[in-house]
TrEMBL record:
Protein's name according to its UniProt entry: site-specific DNA-methyltransferase (adenine-specific)
Pfam families on file: N6_Mtase
EC number(s) given by UniProt: 2.1.1.72
The keyword Transport is assigned to this record: no
Gene Ontology MF: a single term: N-methyltransferase activity
Length: 571
């Protein structure tokens, strides 16, 4: 089937025939099998017209297809002979080809989890800059929608795909058959296996979002080259990075890799070390932040990651407002794609190139809006100033005076500095002081005070002050007393640590080499006014996760101590 015929098929109405097929399939087997069985029945209905007798269908399958496709088609042919015969008689080939090509594509009855929406595919194809000499590989090719669109929009040399889900693999193989087998498809694991022998220099990846390192560890351990990036990673590192780097490592260089990722991997703390390594190696070319509700499988906003070699700056595009809104799902229409591409290649109010030094100063955060002069919209927001009883700055103590105050023995007096805050937690052991005189007592923090660093990159934590203990805050810190009758203090902490909170802190921060925020500007930060019940739920979950993190850190310290003492009994 040529491209012109394929485009004409898009206009073909096939719902009535499809419903008849699905009526038979419903209640038989798993719902996950409906799509692949539907497409198989449509294809077999076409093949029936080529044979004189249904008994000859199996022989035709053996000639036309390879394993595991022919085994699957044989099974469907034996199980649904009556339905296939009836469908063949009642439907012309164009309707059947339309079912094979478009059933279950994005937007179709919620059966599109393994498909890439047309608008995203179109944008990624342009970002890959595919020409007639390129071999394109889809890592996680799903039901073949991206490869089909590449075939329709480019004249690339070869199209290849790797898919781990058997049903999706079979769907894409059946679809490729009506396109004269334009795709070379492999059933395999995108993480554990090496696909460089496929010689693809343009690689795309739209893999499952939100997976974590422990879920992928077994596959990762089978790939030494990929595993090097994650040997020292935290357990909470984003699985999205594993899939994206796997795609890059399977790209023949010089080449280009484009991946779809959740936004969290661009800014969260567990991924900072990984982002740093990739950025310093010059492997990240660009970041495009997209709107929410573009994928059928999730409503979260996503990011396009563009990887290549030799990048000393990164192209940032905040395209979070560029989409055509739908009732259930948003889409990228031609005009949206055109605007985003223009922003990627030309500086606009939503795009710019950012140096590695500037990104390093922002904890290697890759959210484009972190580097744009954008307005942060908080619906139903209440200013932090209206939720506080007080905001105070820590004491400006000269180094000489502080040296005289430091105690070498344990006391009830302590000193809190910026470096004592790590992963939103305050060190359990703080520097000891001999005493805190009356003059400095007003700079002492209280239990449950919210601690916010004055300078960027901003750190947020909640103080825990024991009975009889006194903690003097450093001048680079603010300590905030939240009015608990108005808001849950932990909820405020969680929000300020989020990317939306950090965006506001950075928006109001001033300065060049060292950016800092004033108390007046801190008061202007908007906190979303959600029901107290929802605030408490978020706070409880955060507290539980924080407790787990503390336990894990203690376990790490214990293991490190045991490692250091291994030889003590021998020596």
């Amino acid at each position: 089937m040529d491209k012109k015929t394929y485009l004409e098929l898009r206009k073909t109405e096939f719902n009535s025939i499809e419903l008849k097929i699905l009526d038979t399939l419903r209640g038989e087997g798993r719902t996950d099998d409906y799509l692949v069985n539907e497409i198989a029945i449509a294809l077999l209905a076409i093949l029936v017209k080529e044979v004189n007798d249904y008994s000859q269908l199996s022989e035709l399958i053996q000639v036309r297809f390879e394993e595991p496709v022919k085994m699957f088609l044989d099974r469907v042919a034996n199980k649904y002979e009556e339905l296939i015969t009836e469908t063949s008689k009642s439907s012309d080939n164009n309707i059947l080809r339309a079912i094979i090509s478009f059933a279950g594509n994005p937007g179709d009855k919620g059966r599109a989890e393994d498909s890439t929406p047309d608008g995203i595919s179109q944008l990624c194809i342009k970002l890959l800059e595919i020409d007639e000499n390129d071999t394109v590989l889809d890592m996680g090719s799903g039901t073949g929608t991206f490869l089909t669109q590449v075939y329709m929009e480019t004249d690339c040399k070869e199209l290849k795909g790797v898919e781990i889900n058997t049903n999706s693999f079979l769907v894409s193989k059946l679809r490729s058959s009506v396109l004269d087998n334009r795709f070379e498809l492999k059933l395999g694991n995108a993480i554990s296996e090496n696909y460089l022998p496929l010689e693809a220099n343009k690689v795309f990846s739209n893999m499952p979002l939100g997976m974590r390192l422990p879920n992928l560890r077994n596959s990762l351990n089978s790939n030494d080259e990929l595993n090097k990036f994650f040997e020292n990673s935290k357990r909470t590192v984003s699985g999205d990075w594993i899939f994206s780097i796997a795609a890059f490592l399977n790209t023949v260089q010089p080449g280009k890799t484009v991946s779809i990722m959740a936004n969290g991997g661009m800014w969260n703390k567990p991924d900072e070390g990984l982002r740093k390594e990739l950025i310093e190696q010059g492997l990240i070319e660009g970041i495009i932040q997209l709107p929410e509700r573009l994928l059928s499988s999730t409503g979260i906003p996503v990011t396009i990651l563009i990887m290549s070699q030799g990048n000393d700056e990164i192209r940032m595009v905040d395209a979070s407002k560029y989409a055509t809104k739908g009732r259930r799902q948003n889409t990228l229409e031609n005009r949206d794609v055109k605007n985003i591409l223009n922003a990627y290649h030309t500086d606009t109010d939503i795009s710019k190139s950012v140096s590695v030094d500037e990104i390093a100063a922002n904890e290697y955060i890759l959210n484009p809006n972190r580097y744009m002069e954008v307005e942060v919209e908080i619906e139903n927001g209440i200013s932090l100033g209206d939720l506080c009883l007080s905001i105070n700055r820590g004491a400006m103590v000269k180094s000489k005076d502080l040296d005289n105050m430091v105690s070498k023995t344990s006391t009830q007096y302590h000193y809190l500095m910026l470096q004592n805050i790590k992963d939103s937690l305050i060190d359990a052991e703080l520097p000891n002081l001999k005493d805190i005189g009356y003059r400095l007592s007003k700079y002492c923090i209280q239990d449950k005070n919210l601690i916010i660093s004055k300078i960027s990159p901003f750190k947020i934590a909640t103080a825990k002050v024991k009975d009889g203990e006194r903690i003097l805050a450093n001048g680079n810190l603010y300590f905030v007393e939240i009015d608990e009758s108005k808001v849950n203090p932990t909820y405020v902490e969680v929000f300020l640590q989020s990317e939306a909170g950090m965006l506001q802190l950075n928006k109001y921060a001033k300065g060049a080499a060292m950016r800092s925020i004033s108390i007046q500007d801190l008061k202007r930060i908007q906190i979303p006014d959600i029901p107290r019940k929802e605030q408490d739920k978020i706070a409880d979950e955060y507290t539980l996760l924080t407790d787990q993190l503390i336990v894990m850190q203690k376990q790490i310290d214990l293991v490190r101590d045991k490692k250091m003492r291994l030889m003590e009994e021998v020596l």
